Amino acid sequence: MGCSSSKEVRNSNETLAAASKVTSATENGKTDDEFIEAVVCQESDIGENQMKQVELGEGKVLLVRQNGKLSAIGNKCSHYGAMLVTGALGEGRVRCPWHGACFNVETGDIEDFPGMDSLPCYRVTVGDGGEVKVRAKRTELATNKRTRVMAKRETADERTYVVIGGGPSGATCAETLRQEGFTGRVILINKEPCLPYDRVKVSKTMDMVLDKCLLRTQQFYDDNDIEVMLGTEVTKLDGATREITLDNGYKIRYEKAYIATGSKPRRPPIEGADLRNVCVLRTAADAKLVNEQLGPEKKVVILGTSFIGLEAAAYCVGKVGKVTVIGRGAVPLKESFGDAIGRRVMALFQEKGVEFVMNSGIQKCEGEEGAVKQVELTDGTKLDADICIFGIGSTLYTEFLEGSGITLNRNGSINTDQYLETNVEGVYVGGDIANAPVHSNDGQQATIGHYPLAQYHGRVAALNMAGKATPLNAVPFFWTVLFGKSFRYCGYGNPDEVIIEGDLEALKFVAFYIGKAGRVIGMSSCQRDPVVAQFAEYSSQGKVLHKDDLRPNPLGWIPS
């Protein structure tokens, strides 16, 4: 059922019935068991390139007018439920203000991520008197989510496509193959002993319940003929013979493969790094291990001032006796947000009781009975530690590809073309391990470990594997939540200058990252939604913002 508007002849119940195989709703807000239909506003209430949230029965709908056409879709982002009316309207799609997911305004299909589900779309009609009427299925109005139709496996189709890696990228690729009509065998291979889950929660909410964080259930994979191999590792790939070998000795021949094996946390090569309660945070099992050790008298030492380290510190500080963060540089998050914002974030953490030791590191972990008890810093200072967490970056899971014919870069990443295909025909890569073109960076290749980008890679790879040539149009977008404050960033590159507009002390600001020739290469914000989402849409359309465009009004580039 389409979402677009049409002029409606009064009392045209026959027309409505003919448009659907199910019984239509009656007029004037009366409903049958399956549908509801009612006038939600007047056509004059919504202008061109505007969005309006309207009530329909007990639910709400997002109404959009663009190119003279009215459309209606679900009103909330299918990821974490942000109200899309507060997001950014682009060309034919709306972008979530929180995390950057995008939805087609006419179909509701998800086009950029995070999230797994599309939005329902509803029928819109306009009466002779300008009354706008929306017709919706009750179940879709209640759930505000829609799973796209999947193709079924056909035994006559002997092709096998393998997806190596059970993170968000692999999971998205596997189901997109079915959504795009692939009827051969789809195999999703996951090294972890569990179904794909929302990995973002690992460092943010360590008390996560895994079953509630799954991206899809086993029933979903069964229903859509997607074979899932859990707790299984690929040990070898032969690009010439198109064959993979598993750690159980099993071999699988494939026609096409997608590799999204991600990264593994780095442990420093120091004495005591393998002691009990010396942890990293990458998997649900890692989060569970740390969370089980927390207690009012415990002392936690965290090495690293990355997002992982700071998110872990924010989670732990109210649950333990002391949290100390050790940083190699002078300011946390300087590489991501700049010096001034990094210092303000550091002050926020100190206000909450987190202690910092900067320009330092850990040279030894000391223990008793196999468990860590102290850490020794690079200047010889010793700190008591019942738990030590390393958050100092990661290395890429690509060693198994040595000798495969796929060219590996020195850091383990893999170069791709704009379709995510490697130098070996039929083998695609995405997520953390892909050194792929970035649309908002003039198409230059970059290796970026962002959750939404990994999902986007999975979708684009699947489209190309299914024979639907789709180039990357990537605009990196990431976020973090620290003590209830949401920080968002869009863009890529190392700036020469950072311009901050707003009140940094109050954590209500927008920051512009200025690169070569005065180009705005990135933007961050806190408590200023949806400006970063608006910049993401601006960049995705191929537009370029310069420093001069920020004068006199730094937000003057945003459509009114």
Automatic annotation (TrEMBL):
GO terms for cellular component: cytoplasm. Residues 38-133 form the Rieske domain. The keyword Iron-sulfur applies. InterPro entries: FAD-oxidoreductase/Apoptosis (IPR050446), FAD/NAD-bd_sf (IPR036188), FAD/NAD-binding_dom (IPR023753), FAD/NAD-linked_Rdtase_dimer_sf (IPR016156), Rieske_2Fe-2S (IPR017941), Rieske_2Fe-2S_sf (IPR036922). Signal peptide: none annotated. Its cofactor is FAD. Keywords: 2Fe-2S, FAD, Flavoprotein, Iron, Iron-sulfur, Metal-binding, Oxidoreductase. One of its GO terms (molecular function) is metal ion binding. Belongs to the FAD-dependent oxidoreductase family. This is Rieske domain-containing protein.
